[in-house]
Amino acid sequence: MDVTLLGTGAPAGLPRPDCPCAACAAAQGEDARAATALLVDGALLLDLTPGAAFAAARAGRSLTGVRQVLLSHPHDGPAVEVPAGLPQPGRVPDGRELALLTGHRVRAVALDAPGTGYAVTGPDGGRLLYVPPGGSPAGLEEPVEPYDLILADVVGRPDALARLRAVGAAGPTTDVVAVHLGHDVPPGAELARRLAAAGARAVPDGTTLTVGAYEEVPDVPRRTLVLGGARSGKSVEAERRLESFPDVLYVATGGTRGGDTEWAARVCAHRERRPGSWRTAETCDLVPLLEDAGPPLLVDCLSLWLTDAMDAVGAWDDAEWADGGERALRDRTRELTEAVRATRRTLVAVSNEVGSGIVPATASGRRYRDELGRLNAAFAAECEQVLLVVAGRALVLGPV
C-alpha cells in the first residue's frame, strides 16, 4: 500500500496567508506545506488540499482512480473545492468500517476532539492510522497490534502518540510521520530535531510512502543532558523530549520550601505544564531510580541535586570540606554517573550552566560553580546526547 501526501500542513497551510511570523517567512521550498491530504493507492483520498488535482500531478499521481473521498475534520482553512469527477466527500461514523471494491478497509476511529481518525488496511495487509489535527484517539484499550504507519499531529498533540505507544499501537518499527504542520514550530532543521527526539519525522509535500517499508529514523537517545542558564527554556526542552511517551516519572530534586511563595509559584508552573499522565517524585535519591526498570525518567535538576549533596557532606565549611567532605562528594558523583552508565531506562536530565557568567564573590559560591561544572562534564560523558539551550534555542553539543 502506497500513500502520497498531497499536503502535510495545517488546515491554513504553511506559510499562512498574511502572517508575518518568522516561521512563515522561512517556510519556502520544501518547507512550504499545503493542508494535509492523503492519496492511498490512487483509490482513497483522505481530506482535501486546495488544488488537489494539481498537487497530485506534481507528485506524479492522478485522481482519476479515486473511488472514495473521506473528510476527517471540520475545515477552517482556505476554501477547498472538490475536483471534477471525484465522488462527494463523506465521513464514516465512529467505530464503523467501510469496505472498498479495491480491497481497502477503512475503520473510523473515535477522537477526543471534533473529527474522525481513519485506520486503513490495504489489500496487502499493510496498516496505517491517520489522525486529524488537534485530535487523539479515544477509548484505546491494550493490547493493540502496531500500525505500520501513523500520520498524526505530533507537534500539536504529542500526547496522542504517547497514548498510542501506551497500548502498543505505535511500536518500535512503526513509521511515525508528522502532518498538520503549522507555524508553531520553526521549519527545517529545528522541526527535524524536535521530531527526531520523539521518534518521528516530517516529509515534504508530494512524498510517496510505502506502508510497511523500513525507514531510517534517528533512534531516540536513551540518555540526554539538557544544559542552560536561568530561564533559558531548558526545562521546557527536556519536557518536550518526553511528552510523546507514556508513564514518564518526573523527578523533582528541589522539594518544597515552606513559606517561599516564589519557589511555590515556580513549582506550580512546572506542574501545570506537564502532561497529566506523568507521575512526580520529589527526591534527590537518584541512584535507586536509575537502577530500577521502569518508564522514562526526567530529572530536574542536577543543580539542586548537587546542592543537596554538598549540604550532606558539609561542603560549605572549609574544615569539613578538607577533612573528607570533598572526597565524599566525589564518591557521590561517581556513584551517580556509574548508575547513569548502567541504567536501562530512558533518561533526560536538566542542569544549569553557571560557569560562563560573573565569578562568584564568595568561596562557597566558587566551590559550587566548580563542582557543578565537574558534575555536568561527568554526567555528559555518560549520555548519548547533550544539548545547550540558549534563548529558547537548543544547540546539539553531541552525540558523545
Key terms:
400 residues; alpha/beta; six-stranded mixed β-sheet; elongated
Q: Which class best fits the helix and strand makeup? A: alpha/beta
Q: What fraction of residues sit in β-strands?
A: 15-25%
Using only C-alpha atoms, the radius of gyration works out to: 25 Å
* Amount of helix: 25-40%
* Strand runs, count: 18
What is the H/E order? Answer: EHEEHEEEEEEHEHEEHEHEHEHHEHEE
Bulk shape: elongated
Widest sheet, order of strands: 14-13-15-16-12-17-18
**Which residues form runs of ≥5 with pLDDT under 50?**
none
> How many helices?
10
- pLDDT averaged over residues: 90
- Amino- and carboxy-terminal Cα gap: 39 Å
Biggest pleated-sheet summary: 7 strands, mixed
Can you walk through the features of this model?
By secondary structure, the protein is an alpha/beta fold. Helix content is 28%, strand content 20%. It contains 10 helices and 18 strands. The strands form 3 sheets. Strands 14-13-15-16-12-17-18 form a 7-stranded mixed sheet, with helices on both faces. It has a 6-stranded mixed sheet with strand order 5-6-7-8-9-10, with no helix packed on it. The two termini are 39 Å apart.
